[in-house]
């Protein structure tokens, strides 16, 4: 499998293509040298249960490649304290040899104890590092123990690889994290925002890897495993999935008194909410001792609705949060890892105020009353959100291992900082493969079902087409199958899929991802939830909208509507549809029925329409309407002219009518003029109602109607709107591009 990485263009250096080939040649040389040289000696230092969940996947990856790496494991911090679960045992259970155990925690759980613990670690670490002599030390995150590790390694001229730098949370952790960034030589970050923060902090662009969070490599394959036995073991035999809460709250060291008060309010709210709750003990930060006292004062350890535990193994913890009705607290796990399952999260206070979050997270910034927290529980408990992959796609460890192999130990140890300002959206390749941010686009038409991989620039990288099945079950299974195959192919094509966008006929509720009512062309397609099965299968966020709206979105992002504040798109195909962009936003209407432009009535005594009315634009100008008129002429032997023929096994359709008109058939020409006139009158009504700055005709029939439509506007429209331009779309695949644009334009960070 090809492993893809992101990287960056440095300002003031040669152009991107020159840099790409320079780095490609350089890194190939490094890899070739390493095949003949000694193994890279890697020291992984873990301080607590949280950082081990991120480091363990990397450690397993290193262990699986003994021909390239030697692994030394150093354990320190709260791993070795009984009150915090003696979590070093899970490292032993994972069959890792612990080279060194360092007791570095000074008890007291206050600010002074944290400082003294850093000092004790600084005293003990030099002997360990002198003995191990690692080539590189891997340090994770933002804990005070990690700061001691990074300081020791930097002063002893040991290269440092920092995991999860560049992120923003909202407490003293930010200062520690950024301090470690300045000490580290190499950086592995999880999100594009974190990557940009590192660049803004003047870190060397060539030494930043956007890999995703290592824990996601395990998370994204975890939910389908057996979980009922785990739920029963930790919460009791009578507890059902989605009917319990996981609570994990830590002290905020910059405001300990408030965080203790907030913890009291949280426990009171959970008691009132009356659901079985698994409460994990807080970490070892200053204030944790007082939080434990609050738990014991309120009798949480003996309350029938609570299970209070010091530690849950990560594999089991994954299953517990994946199937919880809600998670509450201020742990980074809630805003990061839990999003992979779409589990609702209530984030309390300011400890994670700066984190990027998925839509599953509800923030209660000022958690100063029990009622606020209780109301949040009522809002969130039992919901299911789309799975979020903000922090990873499940391929972080292979990228990190490749990054480690590319490190040249002959390079100067002294760090270089890139002080010139960095422009937005400039990136330089740090490895020999560059990933393309892409979307999976699905177009559900009356005849065909199409899936495409679409890049950020609107390029269709690959497209798959199948006949659209007639039944719901066959159709949904085919959609899932095609999307799974396309997602797998995307990896080989160096495309990173950000989400799935679906364009379908009929009335759609885009907020819920549900097709409310479909057109007659797509059978068994009413009240269909498209979001849930796709999101659960692909672990990706999913958006759904009407095909007319998607055409408008395509024009806004990639077509002639780009940069315009107000415009209207009309689709001329089998039916007539459309989309309205007003003040740069798509209009859905109060019941998701806006822009049904094909059902504007242009004649009180016109032909019957499929909607049940008559005289609609669609009854005159749609492909179905032209096919109806073509069949009438053909049955009366008035369709074919010299140079035309229709094979016996071929149905007469709109294209035959157009061909006849081009060859001089007066009756076919009259039908097309009438159809164009009906469409033109509809456009006049749109101009008088919406007053857009542009009207875009899209679809296979657009070019045949454009001149007639412009004539009708000159004849019938008010002079104040006659200057509005009407153009034919130059997009070949508006439905697919519009579906992709829903994914590519979506802002994943939500604040409630």
TrEMBL record:
GO cellular component assignments: cytosol
Superkingdom of the organism of origin: Eukaryota
Domain UDP-N-acetylglucosamine 2-epimerase: 68-405
Keyword list, A-Z: Kinase, Transferase
Binding site for an N-acyl-D-mannosamine: 507, 519, 547, 596, 599, 618
One Pfam family, short name: ROK
Binding site for Zn(2+): 599, 609, 611, 616
Gene3D superfamilies linked to this entry: 3.30.420.40, Glycogen Phosphorylase B
Leader peptide range in chain numbering: none
Positions annotated as active site in the UniProt record: 547
GO biological process, one term: UDP-N-acetylglucosamine metabolic process
Gene Ontology MF terms in the entry: ATP binding; hydrolase activity, hydrolyzing O-glycosyl compounds; metal ion binding; N-acylmannosamine kinase activity; UDP-N-acetylglucosamine 2-epimerase activity
CDD domains according to UniProt: ASKHA_NBD_ROK_GNE, GTB_UDP-GlcNAc_2-Epimerase
SUPFAM superfamilies assigned: Actin-like ATPase domain (SSF53067), UDP-Glycosyltransferase/glycogen phosphorylase (SSF53756)
NCBIfam families noted in UniProt: NeuC_NnaA
PANTHER family: BIFUNCTIONAL UDP-N-ACETYLGLUCOSAMINE 2-EPIMERASE_N-ACETYLMANNOSAMINE KINASE (PTHR18964:SF149), ROK (REPRESSOR, ORF, KINASE) FAMILY (PTHR18964)
Protein name: Bifunctional UDP-N-acetylglucosamine 2-epimerase/N-acetylmannosamine kinase isoform X1
Source organism of this protein record: Odocoileus virginianus
């Amino acid at each position: 499998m090809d492993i893809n990485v992101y990287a960056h263009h440095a300002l003031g250096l040669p152009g991107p293509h020159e840099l790409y080939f320079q780095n490609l040649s350089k890194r190939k040389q490094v890899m070739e040298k390493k095949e003949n040289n000694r193994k890279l000696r890697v020291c992984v230092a873990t301080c607590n249960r949280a950082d081990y969940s991120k480091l363990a996947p990397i450690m397993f990856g290193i262990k699986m490649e003994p021909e390239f790496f030697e692994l030394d494991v150093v354990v320190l911090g709260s791993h070795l304290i009984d009150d915090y679960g003696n979590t070093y045992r899970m490292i032993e259970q994972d069959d890792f040899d612990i080279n060194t155990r360092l007791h570095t925690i000074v008890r007291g759980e206050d600010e002074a104890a944290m400082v003294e613990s850093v000092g004790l670690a600084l005293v003990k670490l030099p002997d360990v590092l002198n003995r191990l002599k690692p080539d590189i030390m891997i340090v994770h995150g933002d804990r005070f123990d990690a700061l001691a590790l990074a300081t020791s390694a930097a002063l002893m001229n040991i290269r440092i690889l920092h995991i999860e730098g560049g992120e923003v949370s909202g407490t003293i952790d930010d200062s520690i994290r950024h301090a470690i960034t300045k000490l580290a030589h190499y950086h592995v970050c999880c999100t594009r925002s974190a990557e940009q923060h590192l660049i803004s902090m003047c870190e060397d662009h060539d030494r930043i890897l956007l890999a995703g969070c290592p824990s996601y490599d395990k998370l994204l394959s975890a939910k389908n495993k057996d979980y009922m036995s785990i739920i029963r073991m930790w919460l009791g035999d009578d507890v059902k999935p989605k009917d319990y809460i996981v609570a994990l709250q830590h002290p905020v060291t910059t405001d300990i008194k408030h965080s203790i008060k907030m913890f009291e309010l949280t426990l009171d709210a959970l008691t009132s909410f009356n659901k079985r709750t698994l409460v994990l003990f807080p970490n070892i930060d200053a204030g944790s001792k007082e939080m434990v006292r609050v738990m014991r004062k309120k009798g949480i350890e003996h309350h029938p609705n609570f299970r209070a535990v010091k530690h849950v193994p990560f594999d089991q913890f994954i299953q517990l949060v994946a199937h919880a009705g809600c998670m509450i607290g201020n742990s980074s796990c809630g805003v990061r890892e839990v999003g992979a399952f779409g589990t609702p999260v209530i984030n309390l206070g300011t400890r994670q105020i700066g984190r990027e979050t998925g839509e599953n997270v509800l923030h209660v910034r000022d958690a100063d009353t029990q009622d606020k927290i209780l109301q949040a529980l009522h809002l969130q408990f039992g919901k299911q959100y789309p799975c979020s992959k903000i922090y990873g796609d499940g391929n972080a460890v292979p990228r990190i291992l490749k990054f480690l192999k590319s490190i040249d130990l002959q390079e100067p140890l002294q760090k270089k900082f890139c002080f010139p300002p960095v422009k937005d959206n400039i990136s330089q390749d740090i490895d020999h493969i560059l990933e393309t941010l892409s979307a999976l686009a699905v177009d559900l038409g009356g005849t065909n079902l199409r899936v495409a991989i679409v890049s950020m620039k609107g390029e269709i990288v690959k497209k798959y087409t199948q006949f659209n099945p007639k039944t719901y079950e066959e159709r949904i299974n085919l959609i899932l199958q095609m999307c799974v195959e396309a997602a797998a192919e995307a990896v080989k094509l160096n495309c990173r899929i950000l989400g799935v966008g679906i364009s379908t006929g009929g009335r759609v509720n885009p907020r819920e991802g549900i097709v409310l009512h479909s057109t007659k062309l797509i059978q068994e397609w009413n009240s269909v939830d498209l979001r849930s099965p796709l999101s659960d299968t692909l672990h990706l966020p999913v958006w759904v909208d009407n095909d007319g709206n998607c055409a408008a979105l395509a024009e806004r992002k990639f077509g002639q509507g780009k940069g315009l504040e107000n415009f209207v798109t009309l689709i001329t195909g089998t039916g007539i549809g459309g989309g309205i962009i007003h003040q740069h936003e798509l209009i859905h209407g109060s019941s998701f029925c806006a822009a049904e432009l094909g059902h504007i009535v242009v004649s009180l005594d016109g032909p019957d329409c499929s909607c049940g009315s008559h005289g609609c634009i669609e009854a005159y100008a749609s492909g179905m309407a032209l096919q109806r008129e073509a069949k009438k002429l053909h049955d009366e032997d008035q369709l074919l002219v010299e140079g035309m023929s229709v094979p016996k096994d071929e149905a007469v359709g709109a294209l035959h009518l157009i061909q006849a008109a081009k060859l001089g058939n007066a009756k076919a020409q009259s039908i097309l003029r009438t159809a164009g006139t009906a469409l033109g009158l509809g456009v006049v009504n749109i101009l008088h109602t919406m007053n857009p700055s542009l009207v875009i005709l899209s679809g296979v029939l657009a070019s045949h109607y454009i001149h007639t439509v412009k004539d009708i506007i000159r004849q019938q429209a008010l002079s104040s709107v006659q200057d509005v331009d009407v153009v034919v779309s130059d997009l070949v695949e508006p439905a697919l591009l519009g579906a992709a644009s829903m994914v590519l334009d979506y802002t994943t960070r939500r604040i409630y």
